[in-house]
Amino acid sequence: MNTPTHLLLSAALLAKPGEKGRNWAAIAGSLVPDMSLYVMWANAKFVEGLSDRVIFGQLHFSDYWQLMSAVSNSVPIYIAALLVGLWRNSLVVTIFCISGLIHFAGDFPVHRSDAYRYFWPFSDWRFYSPFSYWNPRYYGNIISMMEIGLVAVLIVILWRRFENWRVRGWLLVAPVPYFAHGLYF
Question: Helix/strand/coil (H, E, C) string of 78-112?
Fold first, then answer.
């Protein structure tokens, strides 16, 4: 699942008008699992000058990149933090962690060759899904069309829930990444 979809899904499930702390926690929780990838990609691309082909064909599968992905996509870490949030009665921590877990639930069924170690540090096991959100050899073309449909539904839900013009402005921009790079066509 693409990062903007994670954001929209968490917002649709967790965000409420007028609750900024809750809403920012939902947004952050949906983004943090992918942040290690973005930071490492930006470093490789702009500091080291590597091509996307090298980055995603080689570096992405290196031990270091896989470890960083395992840490940022670790269900046990998020569950432990969720328990702390519940124990401390912290709505922000609780929503952040639930949002991260929603992110993992969205990724789990659509990662094939790029599957994560969701149960790190307790296990290095990976679920290699028969489906990929991007690879047409594993129904990526179909999954991506389903994802675009989901994005459209989520935008409608959020548009109806939020009357704030800033939120609606972001909702108008939300579909742009799906078409800007020809990801699905």
Answer: HHHHHHHHHHCCCHHHHHHHHHHHHHHHHHHHHCC
